[in-house]
């Protein structure tokens, strides 16, 4: 640790009593908390070797725990000499007194566990580590900012269908929420992200987050084995929890003869499309030749043609009729 960091540490330790039971004025605490970085839930590097916070996490928005490194590599005392103190703001004022960690055991080594009695959501917390009487690290956060749920449990899958080609299949993956997350009563709302890949691949394929505890996965190859995993996060949060145990998906294999036949285009589809195509062609042919077909099916009926009176023929008929009358009269006179 260089001289500047040493002087800064001594200045922080000297500005207020860092031992148990010490008090800090609210104004000084507020000014200090504004300049402090927010908690990073991921693991932080500790190049200085001092005790340092590594992660604060709430699995279900009801309890939380914080973890740190012990810093024994730089001549610090045993991990038991490291103490965590916290302070929180109720209403608009910070409490006057730093309180020591309520439970150093439940969350494991180098940790502090806050059960539901010590956890309040939407209320800012500040925590600090002290070692050998001096403050070595300090963070501020709200509980809802550090929510990272436990992994989902009970992953299983069912086969939905197999493609007509016998190459791909669709499955439905289901799971249960983390046991300690009260999702049924709505205390916490979780989103789930499913990832899958082939067993021999290294790149996971991610699906869009969903609120339900099941999701279909499409177009998986029948000749491959897949790995599936799920993780969750609080809705509208960016921090996911740990992944679930990997679920292995082995799809049923088709017989060689069935596969060989299925690789061909199905005959019944050819017949259906063939009949449909012939029907359309016949319909178009009839539509384009409807006049000619009408002539063949319903030939036209001849229209009777009545000509007008021919004057020449009328004259001949009159002369012929009159001539017969005259001859018949002369014949009657000669016999009388």
Would you write up a description of this structure?
This protein has 3 domains: 3-146, Sandwich (Immunoglobulin-like), CATH 2.60.40; 153-262, Sandwich (Immunoglobulin-like); 268-297. The termini are far apart. It has 6 helices and 15 strands. It is of the alpha+beta class and 336 residues long. The longest helix is centred in the last third of the chain and has 25 residues, at 311-335. Strands 3, 4, 5, 7 and 8 form a 5-stranded antiparallel β-sheet that branches. Strands 12-11-14-15 form a 4-stranded antiparallel β-sheet, with no helix packed on it. It has a 3-stranded antiparallel β-sheet with strand order 1-2-6, with no helix packed on it. Helices cover 25% and strands 28% of the residues. On growth hormone (GH) binding, forms homodimers and binds JAK2 via a box 1-containing domain. It is found in: Cell membrane; Secreted.
Provide the fold topology.
Blueprint lengths: L2 H13 L10 H9 L18 E5 L6 E5 L14 E8 L2 E2 L4 E2 L10 E4 L10 E7 L2 E8 L11 E10 L5 E9 L13 E9 L6 E2 L7 E8 L3 E10 L12 E4 L5 H7 L4 H22 L1 H8 L13 H25 L1
Antiparallel strand pairs: 1-2, 2-6, 3-4, 3-5, 3-7, 7-8, 9-10, 10-13, 11-12, 11-14, 14-15
In CATH, the topology of the largest domain is named: Immunoglobulin-like
Q: Helical region count?
A: 6
Instruction: Give the CATH class of the largest domain.
Output: Mainly Beta
Q: Give a count of the beta strands, DSSP E runs of length 2 or more.
A: 15
What Rg, in angstroms, do the CA atoms define?
A: 48 Å
**Helix/strand/pairing class, anyone?**
alpha+beta
* Inertia-based shape: rod-shaped
Could you spell the SSE succession in H and E letters?
HHEEEEEEEEEEEEEEEHHHH
Main beta sheet strand tally, sense and closure? 5 strands, antiparallel
Number of domains: 3
**Amino- and carboxy-terminal Cα gap:** 176 Å
């Amino acid at each position: 640790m260089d001289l500047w960091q040493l002087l800064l540490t001594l200045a922080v330790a000297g500005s207020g009593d860092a031992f148990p039971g010490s008090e800090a004025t609210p104004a000084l605490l507020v000014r200090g908390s504004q300049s402090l970085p927010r908690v990073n839930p991921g693991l932080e590097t500790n190049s200085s070797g001092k005790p340092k916070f590594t992660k604060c996490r709430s699995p279900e928005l009801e309890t939380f725990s914080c973890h740190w490194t012990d810093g024994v590599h730089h001549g610090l005392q045993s991990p038991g000499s490291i103490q965590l103190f916290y302070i929180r703001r109720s209403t608009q004022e910070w409490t006057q007194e730093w309180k020591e960690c309520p439970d150093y055991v439940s969350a494991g080594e180098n940790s502090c566990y806050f059960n539901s009695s010590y956890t309040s959501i939407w209320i800012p917390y500040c925590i600090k580590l002290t070692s050998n009487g001096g403050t070595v690290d300090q963070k501020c956060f709200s509980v809802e900012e550090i929510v990272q749920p436990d992994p989902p449990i009970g992953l299983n899958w069912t086969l939905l269908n197999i493609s007509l080609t016998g190459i791909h299949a669709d499955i439905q993956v289901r799971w249960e929420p983390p046991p300690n997350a009260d999702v049924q009563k709505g205390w916490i709302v979780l989103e789930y992200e499913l990832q899958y890949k082939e067993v021999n691949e290294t790149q996971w394929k991610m699906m869009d987050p969903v609120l339900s505890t099941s999701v279909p996965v499409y177009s998986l190859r029948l000749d491959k084995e897949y790995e599936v995993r799920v993780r969750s996060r609080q809705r509208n949060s960016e921090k996911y929890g740990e992944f679930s145990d990997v679920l292995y998906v082995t799809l049923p294999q088709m017989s060689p003869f069935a596969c060989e036949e299925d690789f061909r285009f199905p005959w019944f589809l050819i017949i259906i499309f063939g009949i449909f195509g012939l029907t359309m062609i016949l319909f178009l042919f009839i539509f384009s030749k409807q006049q000619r077909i009408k002539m063949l099916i319903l030939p036209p009926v001849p229209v009777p043609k009545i000509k007008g009176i021919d004057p020449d023929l009328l004259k001949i008929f009159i002369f012929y009729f009159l001539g017969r009358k005259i001859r018949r009269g002369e014949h009657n006179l000669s016999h009388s």
